[in-house]
């Protein structure tokens, strides 16, 4: 069963749901499934807007480290990097606006998805972070920089600290901040406002806004990934991922 499901409502809102228990840390296939669901929008004019959401206690915990550490060679590492790139790119280049509905934790790859979304709606228990340095990787600074000011991004990146949704709402990065039980309704309400517009205009507007971006997010993120490959070749990443996997196992 796929960790990603899609439902097209009669009003033109496509709801894409991630569900990979226990923490929505997506496998390699899961990242490509997200990309496939969003890329398919281009060929379906019935879709007016996308709501990207998750089931469970948190939105997304990034890459499945256990899959990576339990796979021989570099196939899982290469797959995760390519899968994340594909998923983030698909969110950014989706033919219609993407609204991220974020609950609970949103870390690592989750920030990559949300940072590339057009609109963010979050529950008041949500928090965001890029703990990549703890696992010997780099990435998603490109996307965190779209959510917070530059020095704040650097502080969060170097310390691997998290930031609550209330702070992002203060920065204006989060459009609506609501109680957890109102999250889906709030995201759908924003989506309905967009879906009520002429879809041809909205698709043109999405392409136009991407065209005036000051930073090429695809190139920027790919540049970050190059350093992740270097750290893996040095053996640093594998050592830190083993430590992380062991710590998580010890918690059970």
Largest sheet: 6 strands, mixed
The SS-based structural class is alpha/beta
State the fourth-level CATH superfamily.
Answer: 2-enoyl-CoA Hydratase, Chain A, domain 1
Integer tally of domains: 1
Strand order of the largest sheet: 1-2-3-4-6-9
Low-confidence stretches: none
Distance between the termini: 25 Å
CATH fold name: 2-enoyl-CoA Hydratase, Chain A, domain 1
What order do the SSEs take from the amino end to the carboxyl end, as H and E? EEHEHHEEHEEHHEHEHHHH
> CATH top level?
Alpha Beta
- The share of residues in extended strands comes to 15-25%
Shape-level CATH architecture: Alpha-Beta Complex
Report the average pLDDT across residues: 94
InterPro entries: ClpP/crotonase-like_dom_sf, Enoyl-CoA_hydra/iso
Organism: Aeromicrobium panaciterrae
Protein name: Enoyl-CoA hydratase
GO molecular function: enoyl-CoA hydratase activity
Give the SSE layout.
Layout: E1 4-8, E2 13-18, H1 28-39, E3 49-54, H2 65-69, H3 75-93, E4 98-102, E5 105-107, H4 109-115, E6 119-123, E7 127-129, H5 141-144, H6 150-159, E8 162-164, H7 165-171, E9 176-178, H8 183-195, H9 199-211, H10 217-233, H11 236-251
Parallel strand pairs: 2-3, 3-4, 4-6, 5-7, 6-9
Antiparallel strand pairs: 1-2, 7-8
Helix pairs in contact: 1-3, 3-4, 3-10
Short description:
The protein has 252 residues and is α/β, with parallel strands linked by helices. It has helices at 28-39, 65-69, 75-93, 109-115, 141-144, 150-159, 165-171, 183-195, 199-211, 217-233, 236-251; strands at residues 4-8, 13-18, 49-54, 98-102, 105-107, 119-123, 127-129, 162-164, 176-178. The protein is globular.
């Amino acid at each position: 069963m796929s960790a990603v499901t899609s439902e097209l409502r009669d009003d033109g809102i496509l709801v894409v749901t991630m569900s990979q228990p226990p923490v929505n840390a997506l496998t390699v296939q899961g990242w490509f499934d997200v990309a496939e669901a969003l890329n398919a929008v281009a060929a379906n004019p019935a879709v007016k807007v996308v709501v990207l959401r998750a089931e469970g206690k948190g939105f997304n915990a990034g890459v499945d480290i256990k899959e990576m550490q339990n796979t021989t060679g570099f196939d899982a590492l290469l797959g995760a990097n390519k899968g994340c790139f594909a998923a983030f790119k698909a969110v950014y280049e989706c033919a219609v606006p993407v609204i991220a509905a974020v609950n609970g934790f949103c870390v690592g790859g989750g920030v990559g998805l949300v940072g590339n979304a057009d609109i963010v709606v979050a529950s008041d228990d949500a928090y965001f972070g890029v703990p990549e340095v703890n696992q010997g990787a780099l990435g998603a600074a490109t996307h965190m920089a779209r959510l917070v000011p530059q020095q704040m991004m650097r502080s969060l990146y170097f310390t691997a600290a998290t930031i609550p949704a209330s702070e992002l709402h203060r920065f204006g990065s989060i459009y609506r901040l609501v109680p957890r039980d109102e999250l889906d309704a709030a995201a759908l309400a924003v989506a309905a406002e967009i879906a009520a517009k002429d879809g041809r205009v909205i698709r043109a507007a999405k392409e136009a806004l991407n065209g005036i971006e000051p930073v090429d997010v695809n190139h920027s993120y790919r540049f970050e990934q190059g350093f992740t490959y270097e750290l893996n070749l040095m053996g640093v990443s594998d050592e830190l991922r083993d430590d992380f996997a062991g710590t998580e196992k010890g918690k059970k």
